[in-house]
Amino acid sequence: MVQDLYILMITAGIVSLLFKLLKQPVVLGYIVAGILVGPHLFGENLVSHDNVETWGNIGVLFVLFCIGLEFRLKNLFESGKVAIVGAATIIGGMLLLGFGVGLSAELNTMNSLFLAAMLCMSSTTIVMKAVDEAGLSKARFVKGATSILIFEDIVAVVLMVLLSSVAVKNSFEGSVLLEKVGVLAITLVIWFVVGILIIPTLLRKVRKHLNDEILIIISLGLCLGMVLTAEEAGFSSALGAFVMGMILAETKEAHRIEKLMAPLKYVFAAIFFVSVGMMIDPVSLVEYWSSIIYVAVVIIVGMIVFGTLGCWWGGETLHDAMLTGFSFVQIGEFSFIIAALGSKLGVTDPVIYPIIVAASVFTTFLTPYIMKAATPCYNFIYNHASESLRAKIDRREKEVEQAEQAAARDTDSNAPSSADKVRNAVKHTLITKHIVNLFLKNMSENNETEKEKKDN
Predict the structure, then answer these.
(1) Which of 156, 166, 185, 299 has its CB surrounded by the most CB atoms within 10 Å?
(2) pLDDT value of position 268
C-alpha cells in the first residue's frame, strides 16, 4: 500500500508540475498520471487498482464536502433569477441534448440518461481558474456565473441520487422517480433545517476550546456521520458529505474548516482523478476519436447556446450572458463522478467512460481560448443586429446598471435586512419566533464573519 501511494504521488506530482509549466489545469496532469500508472499503457498495473479506487472514493466525499463548504445561501439568493433560470436552462437543455445524442448513437435508455447527466455540468474548478487567469475575477458576470455553478452542483448531487435509484431498479418509471424526488426534497429540508438549528449552536458554545486539531476532527466526524446517515436513508454517500458541508458553511468556523480541509482535499482529489485516468485505455482514444470530437463539439456548442440564453432570460446583459456561456464550455469533476458511478453499478457501456474523460480533457484545454472569443462574438452580433434587437440589448444594459446602483444604495442605507424582515413576519408567534431567530442567527454568523474580514 505504501509503495502504491509512493508511485501514485510521485507520478502525479511530476506530471502535474509539467502541466502547470505548460499553463494547463493540473487536473489534466492527474488524469495523464493515471494513464501512465494504469494497466493499459504498459500492460500491467504499477499500483493496486483496488487501493486507488478506495482512496478515490474517499476523495469524492472530501471534494463534495469542500464544495458544500463553499456554498452560501446568501450568494444564491442575491443572484436569484439568474441562478435559477440560467441553471435550469443549461441543465434542461443539455439533458435533452445529451439524451438525444445517446439515442442517436443507438444507446439504450439507461446509457442515454447517464450520458445526458455527464454532459450537463460545467466544472466549477476549471471555470473559476480560467476566469482568474483571464483577469476577469472582478468582472460583473462572475457573480451570476458562480451562482449558476453552485446551483448546478446541487442538481448534480440530486441527479446522482436519482440515477443510482433508477440504475438499481434498472427501470425508468415516472411515478417512482417523482416519489424519489419528493422524498429527497423533504429529507434535504429536514437535514438542513435541523442541522442549522443544532450544529452552529453547539460549535458556538464550545468555540473557545476549538483549536485547529479538534475542529478538523469534529468536522470530519460530522461529515462521515452524515455520510452514514445518507446511506442508511437509502441515498448516496456523496449527498451526505455535500449536505454537511452546506450546514457547516453557515457557521463562523466555515473559513477555518475550509482552510484546514484544503490539504486533505488536494491529496484525495488528486487520487480520485488519477483513478479516473487509470480506467482509460489509450487505444480506445484512437479508436473512438470521432466520437470524442463529436461529444466535445456538442458540449461546446450546447453550453454556449444554453448558457447565453439562460443568463439573458435570467436578466443579465447580452455581453455578460455570452461571457458566462463561453466560460462553461467544459465538463469536469461531476461528469467523472457520474461516469464512475455508472461503471461501478454496471449499467453503462464501457466505451462511454473514456469518451467522456477524453472530451472533458479536450474541452478543458480549449476553455481559455473559447473564453477570449466571447467579446469579439458579442461585438459581431451587436454590430450586425437589427435596430430593434440592438435597442433591446442597450435597454437591458441600462436596466442592469440601474439595478446595481439601487443595490449599492440599499447597502449603504439602514434598510432592514432579509433576516429582519423574516423576524418581523413571525413576531406574533412564540415557538416559531424562537426557532426562526435561532435559525437566522446561525445562518447569519458566517455572513457577519465575512463582513468583519472585509472591514479589516
Answers:
(1) 299
(2) 79
Does residue 315 come out as left (phi exceeding 0), alpha (psi in the -120 to 50 range) or beta? Answer: left
pTM for the full model? 0.71
DSSP string computed for 351-410:
THHHHHHHHHHHHHHHHHHHHHTHHHHHHHHHHHS-HHHHHHHHHHHHHHHHHHHHHHHH
Domain match, 398 and 431 both: no
CB 59 within 8 A of CB 261: no
Closest C-alpha among 40, 38, 338, 287 to residue 163:
338
Residue 183 has pLDDT above 80, yes or no: no
- The type of residue at 181 is V
Whether 217 and 338 map to the same domain: the answer is: yes
- Give a yes or no: residue 410 inside a domain: yes
Question: What is the length of the chain?
Answer: 456
Domain annotation covers residue 8: no
Give dist(CA 260, CA 250) in Å, integer: 16
Question: Do 156 and 114 meet the contact criterion of CB atoms below 8 Å apart?
Answer: no
Closest CA to 75 of 330, 453, 450: 450
Same domain assignment for residues 406 and 299: no
Average pLDDT in the chain: 79
Number of domains in the chain: 3
Q: By residue range, what is the domain housing residue 430?
A: 417-456
Domain boundary among 328, 352, 379: 379
280-308 per-position pLDDT tens digit: 778 877 888 888 899 999 999 999 999 99
What's the Cα-to-Cα distance from 307 to each of 74, 88, 247, 404, rounded to whole Å? Answer: 22, 10, 29, 22
Contacts of 399 (CB under 8 A, 6+ apart): 315
- Identify residue 416 by its one-letter amino acid code: P
